[in-house]
Amino acid sequence: MTQWPAGIGREIHDSLDSTNAEALRRAAGGETGPLWIVAHTQTAARGRRGRAWVAPAGNFGGTLLMHAPGDQALRSFVAALGLFDAMVAVTGRPELFALKWPNDVLLAGGKLAGILLEAANGGALAIGIGVNLASAPDPDSLEPEAAPPVSLREATGLAVTAEDLLDHLAPALAGWEDRLADEGFAPLRAAWLARATRIGETISARLPDRTLTGRFETIDPTGALVLGTAEGRVVLPAAEITFAGAA
User: Fold this and answer.
1) Do residues 76 and 102 touch, judged by C-beta distance below 8 A?
2) Which of 123-148 are b and which e, b meaning 16 or more Cβ less than 10 Å from the residue's Cβ?
3) At what angle do helices 75-91 and 186-195 cross, to 10 degrees?
4) What digits encode the pLDDT tens for the residues 13-50?
5) At a CB cut-off of 8 Å and minimum separation 6, what does 189 contact?
6) What is the dihedral angle through the alpha carbons of 151, 59, 137, 24, rounded to the nearest 10 degrees?
7) What are the structural domains of the chain?
8) From CA 66, how far away is CA 123, in angstroms rounded?
9) Quick count: other Cβ atoms within 10 Å of Cβ 103?
10) With contact defined as beta carbons under 8 Å apart, do 136 and 149 qualify?
11) Intra-chain end-to-end CA distance of the chain, in Å
12) Which residue of 86, 129, 158, 210 lies most exposed, with the fewest beta carbons within 10 A?
């Protein structure tokens, strides 16, 4: 086991409805963490935009409840970088992984993991992370343009438990959180760009009222996506990114 970060709690449950829901319940009761809540199964896990997240036994489902001063959205990058580093630590295969804006972790081009941030009163933040360690959802259950799901076991043959991953994830995420607090977002931005997929390529960004297609240029100092389109450069704080039709 790697060194567990000082001052951070850890709970492992057989089953919960949702680790994020449990974290938010704790926050409503006055807790602000930091505390990792992990469940071997979740009966009502959720992803971004209210989508269901398949969370069977053997996969990782966990939430870090923490007090997050400042720009909470930047913790999306903290979590993505921490998870990337944890996956490299458990596999020794950095070339397999990449980051998709804003915070998905890809394995050989397929979606391995998702991250969901939910704010609570008092500056508390729930950072939910789901990782397909043992199995991936049926592609037919996803939207047509979604990245194909993949599991670590089927892609690499490695069997990693939720506890094993947590042992690497907790210190990795804590390390990036410390850097954000000490140095600001600039080093995280540089590290994220070094691990990002599709920079310089054509992507599509789906907004509530339209879809933009253009060249993925970079992310700006706030973490927003910078897209070069036929109409000019567009900065997007939030969007749903797909690679359908990308060159």
Assistant:
1) yes
2) ebbbbbbbbbbbbbbeeeebeeeebe
3) 50
4) 999 999 999 999 999 999 999 999 999 999 887 755 55
5) 77, 219, 221, 223
6) -130
7) 9-195 (3.30.930.10), 202-242 (2.30.30)
8) 8
9) 25
10) yes
11) 43
12) 210
CA distance 218 to 241: 14
H or E stretch at 225? strand 225-229
Q: Determine the Cα–Cα distance for residues 14 and 221; give it in Å rounded to an integer.
A: 40
Closest CA to 116 of 221, 188, 24, 200: 24
What does each C-alpha distance from 149 to 22, 109, 145 come to in angstroms?
26, 9, 12
- Six-digit token pair at 59? 């996969």
| Residue 75, phi then psi, degrees to nearest 5 | -70, -15
Q: Is the pLDDT of residue 140 over 90?
A: no
Q: Which two tokens stand for residue 188?
A: 């995280």
| Cβ(227)–Cβ(246) below 8 Å | no
Helix (H, G, I), strand (E, B) or coil at 201: coil
**Sheet architecture: strand order including 97-100:** 9-16, 35-42, 60-67, 124-131, 110-119, 104-107, 97-100
pLDDT single digits (tens) 62-96: 999 999 988 999 999 999 999 999 999 999 999 99
Task: Please say whether the dihedral angle defined by the alpha carbons of residues 77, 83, 88 and 94, taken in this order, is positive or negative.
Answer: negative
In tens, the pLDDT along 165-217 reads 999 999 999 999 999 999 999 999 999 999 999 999 999 999 999 999 999 99
pTM of the model: 0.92
